[in-house]
Amino acid sequence: MQDLDGVPNLDCVIAGAGPAGLMLALLLARAGLRVTLVEKHADFLRDFRGDTIHPSTLEVMHELGLAEALLQLPHTRAPTLHAEIGGADVTLADFSRLPVRARFIAFMPQWDFLAFLAREAARFPGFRLIMNAEVTALIEEAGRIGGLVIRTPEGEMPIRAALTVGADGRGSRVRALAGLHVTQFGSPSDVLWFKLSHRPGDPSPTMAHAGPRQGFVLIDRGEHWQCGYVVRKGSYADVQALGLDAFRAAVAAVSPLPAERVGEITSWDDIHLLSVRIDRLARWWRPGLICIGDAAHAMSPIGGVGVNLAIQDAVAAANRLIAPLRAGRLGNADLAAVEARRRFPTWATQKLQLMMRRNPDKPRSASRSGPPGFLKAIARWPVLAHLAGRLIGLGFRPEHVKPEHVKPSM
To answer: Taking a C-beta distance cutoff of 8 angstroms, is the pair 394, 55 a contact?
Structure first.
């Protein structure tokens, strides 16, 4: 095995070219650091990933001078989010009063967003992206993580770095290899994602639709709708056992689209299961290593906040770690400080998501039909839509790029 280009020491190696990994790599490379990002897949093209870019993330892009270019990519804008409750359209979240420049959620295919970040990072000489590279081991010396080993089509390769970052998602290989303990909080539901065609006369661009017994989500993708049908946790096999006709009928009963549209679901291959989970690392770091994004905390799809929390983690990590990495004195206190900065917003967001779900310990019944209580409360007091807009759009502790990191170091 040979080190990358014979260079044994990088400032940082990051596993996972998702939102957290790419944003952190971009910020470190802009600061003049040497960072290598490894991604196990050969490309970014995967359906039904988190495609919401919230106002907090768009503000970060504005701070970096990249928002205008980003928003030239195809996307749809949602200044509000809606739910159908009791046959009435209710504003679930209103972003119009947020103290930011972009008061809307941008719905953009995640592969476009990731490719944009990768192109921007590639402008800096210290950045390197290796695709189709699977992490197989961590390099550990005297109790400190000093890099990782990847497997590529050309063979195995160790990459040594002062800092190793696990940003490789909720199934993180890095956190497993590091032996970091995960606390599971469970979830009472899963989501079945699929596509239906977008036609003239369909509902307004982006809305959440709460049917009588199920949740149903529509996201406007221009040529098609991305649809999410919520089912009881672990019940997908039961859904399949009832047959595709029964599934189409169940979707038609809660979908605001014409009933015949569900005929476009022709096989179970058209449906993607998202196993919903909420978890959090007991501790995010070990000497020389830290996890961020979904690798540190998996979120429920409620509010679509996972991508944006990942971006906030990356900004907070860059703000704290750039200086010690430049000086060659990265210590445990620096890693602990990143976790301390991001632990409260993570805890608070997950707490809110757990409060917003239906009670998982009680079976659904006719008396418990309808949307969760928080939706009913917003329908009763519309002013709460602005509070929901702030929590969804900005989160509990929005991060901002440090001014000294805004101007790129070429």
So the answer is: yes
Q: Under 8 Å CB-to-CB from 138, ≥6 apart: which residues?
A: 145, 147, 148, 149, 164, 174, 177, 178, 289
User: Model confidence over 91-111: pLDDT tens digits?
Assistant: 888 999 999 999 999 988 899
Which two three-digit tokens encode residue 179? 């032996």
Can you tell me the distance from the alpha carbon of 49 to that of 57, in angstroms, rounded to the nearest whole number? 16
Residue listed under structure tokens 């900065």 = 341
> Residue 147: its pLDDT value, please?
97
CA distance 10 to 91: 49
Contact 312, 293 (CB under 8 A): no
- CB of 293 within 8 A of CB of 169? yes
Q: Which is it for the CA torsion 269, 275, 276, 280, positive or negative?
A: negative
Amino acid symbol at 290: I
Residue 57 has pLDDT above 70, yes or no: yes
Q: CA torsion, points 370, 375, 379, 382, in degrees to nearest 10?
A: 180
User: Do 180 and 286 form a contact (C-beta atoms < 8 A)?
Assistant: yes
Strand residue runs (E) in 246-322: 272-274, 279-281, 285-286, 289-291, 297-298
What's the confidence (pLDDT) of residue 218? 81
- The reported pTM is 0.89
pLDDT level of residue 357 (50, 70, 90 thresholds): low
Helix (H) or strand (E) holding 69: helix 67-70
pLDDT in tens, 221-261: 778 888 889 888 899 999 999 999 999 999 998 888 999 99
